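Ticket #4471: structure export looks truncated?
Reporter: QA, pipeline team
Priority: medium

Steps to reproduce: submit the single chain below to the structure queue and open the exported record.
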Amino acid sequence: MVREDLNSKVCTDLNCVDTGNTELLWCEISTKDGINMIVIGLIYRPPNNNYEDDSKLNSLLIAAEQQTIKKQLLVLGDFNYPDIRWDIGDAQSGTKQEEFIKTINDLYWLQNVNDVTRVRVNNKPSMLDLVFTRSSKEIDYLKFNPCLGKSDHVVLVFSICVRIISNEKYTFYGHNVLGCLRIFYGRWSSTTLSASILSSSLCIIV
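Actual output as written to the record:
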């Protein structure tokens, strides 16, 4: 569902990339007058992904960076890499986790989640849900809210600031992710964008 005061466009080139069992959804959000706001990528990587599918996912992230180099980019989702040490940017040598974090580092992306996002009885708490941007100044007020329903993943709530040029002036939009991704923008106008990330599926509601 798309609000009447926003446009969403499917990023066909990125959505058509073969990533094996990895689920993905890419779209670009813009205002009704055609001002591009942000490209959003939602990812679900199954925990039992094989090396080939993980390599395809890494290649997709590289392609996303190249295709959106002049646009703002937000990539988030359930990546199921519990053994990556995001606090020091490290993973065990020779593993799929090491290849993934090397890709992220080569892209100069910043991972914004700093605490565990999945807690289940008899399982070690882990950080599976990740939020990537190109700079630390884009994300603010990140919160970890209780799980919804029977889910064992926390609800991430955060703000993302989007800068666009409108009528030859810089306009700043503040965005919030609430269980999903909820975007509120501007003193000049307001709207809401929501993208929910589920453990087994992806959907976006604007």
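Status: closed, not a bug. The export was complete when the record was re-opened. Leaving a note from the reviewer for reference: The chain has three helices and twelve strands.
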